[in-house]
Amino acid sequence: MNNIFIFNIARLAVSSVLNAIAIHPRPGLVTPLEKDALDGTEFPVFLDGAMGMFPCLVNCASVGSETEEMNPEDVMTLLRPVGQQGERDILQATRGRLGFRGTLFLTGLLAAAAGRLIAQRRNLTPMALGLTGASFVQGISERELWPLENNSGDEDRTAGERAYILYGIDGCRGEAERRFPLTLRTAGLLQNLEGTHGHLSLRERAAHVLIHIMVWNADTSLAARGGIDELLRVQEAARNTLAAGGMLTPSGREAVNAMDREFRRQGISPRGSTVILSAAFFILALGEMCLTRSGQEE
Question: CA-CA distances (angstroms) from residue 182 to 92, 123, 133, 163, 282?
């Protein structure tokens, strides 16, 4: 496959992550105007982390394109070391502040899916991307999460692993294995809002969708840090904010701002919602990418 195809896939992935972290307001989360509520991490650190993903995403897309005839369940054996190196690259870029593990996992799978689909001369539809990305990780929960039930020590556990041990929440692994249902639902909502509320900016529409994700998402980062009670508080606050109109009405915007103030007061940062939003942006961007045989966008 032409290298420009690969470059464009990775470029769109990083752009999607940047778009997701740059919207404002994002209750409790880092924005260009606010630090992250959890640990005070500032926006430039997140930018460094997003840019640090690029080499890994190039490699993920390359693996997908070069294994078009391989059984999909075997592709993960090649993607895993690529992702592990990507995590190291991001930690180095952010001086150990951020790992972007969930974002890298979902976007990496989708980048590999895009590479495989292009190599097979298939369209990059949301459904095809979700199905192909899921095909790489079938059985991952059984292999990686189920054994934790009998080995629940906290040593070197990720947030996702702790959330599974404590509450049975399967996080990004489950999202990918189930064919990206929340990601596809989010992408559909973004598209619908563009049609029904096109007068709003992308920033405003995405901020509204982010509140929806907080209602739907079983956020492992929240559950691992603050327990199931914190996760439920965030979901309830998001539902109440949407009931007030979210970003679509003046009263709803006041509710979003009040939610933001409260999350910052309590140190609540629903980072898992950004993971889903980034992946949804990426799926939509891939679907709009029209490529010629040379790999250049038309």
Answer: 30, 21, 14, 18, 14
